[in-house]
Design brief:
340 residues, mainly alpha, 14 helices, 78% helix, globular, disordered N terminus
Length: 340
Amino acid sequence: MRAVRPVHGTTRPAWYRRAWSAVSLLILFALVEYVVLPKLALARESLDRVTRLNPLWVIAAAMLEAASLVSYSLFSRALLAASQVRFSWILRSDLTGYGVSHVVPGGAATATALRFRLLANGGARPTDVTATITAEAIGSQLALVLLAWLTSIPALFLRQATPAYLAMFVIGLIAVACGVLAVRERSALERFAAAALRAALHRLPHRVRPWLATVAQRLHDLLGEHEVRKAFLIWATLNWLLDAAVLWTFLAAYGEPIGPVPVLLAYCAANLAAVVPLTPGGIAVVEGIAISALIGFGVPGQVAVLAVLSWRLIQFWAPVPVAGLCYLSLRAESGFLARR
């Protein structure tokens, strides 16, 4: 039997990993030292605002965040429609993965593996789960870019056309154009993608080629369905919008209900920066960029810090204990079904 050639580029040298870790730590320390800590000093000067906060604002923010998480699970259900997994199982699996990604080192990879196992235990086919997770990773980020791009359009007219707005508009325009071409049948982009996939498969080990080809075909079939494309536009976008509404709710609760355009711009900038895996869940990166952006839009520093930290408390930390309860319920239900 002919030996399989080693795959080039699948593993990075040790010096590269060490250098990237060092750069990541330096960037993290710089963000904490020069962005986060000065803003926290402002927050300590106005903690009396928290004690006077109306509980109804907190309840409204919690309900919006819950609706955001449910929207993501509805997105998952649309992609897993062929597997007929119960929605309650999908919701609890998504919440479990979401919470694990916030507390476990290497959270994104660990959460993906855990979601894969939970959804497969719920009755989904492994190829469907793999294609769904891949489509969600792509579709969710594309929805965020689309949201940032649409927000940059009124920003260009309502505010001075800065280079940052123009760059965001151009990047979003390119992403939208690629998305439109990708779903068109018999387009040049689709033929190029098929050729690139075949070339990539020939460089991979023989044992993984059939699996990758099956997943790629399933992903292509998902994107070719009208209901799936509608889920991209509705549920993935709604997931981001409802989460951004939580940030606006806390700004209003602390007495600075600014317009939706600057809130969305600050929100999109912070979450797009969190795509680079410097810290788990973008800790310190999201907070620093969101606070700085809001201050740049005229929000007082104390209010910006309190609003962003309150938003991150609801969005990032509150789902963690809920994720633990969801995981225990899934384990208990799986054990009960196994005994039956």
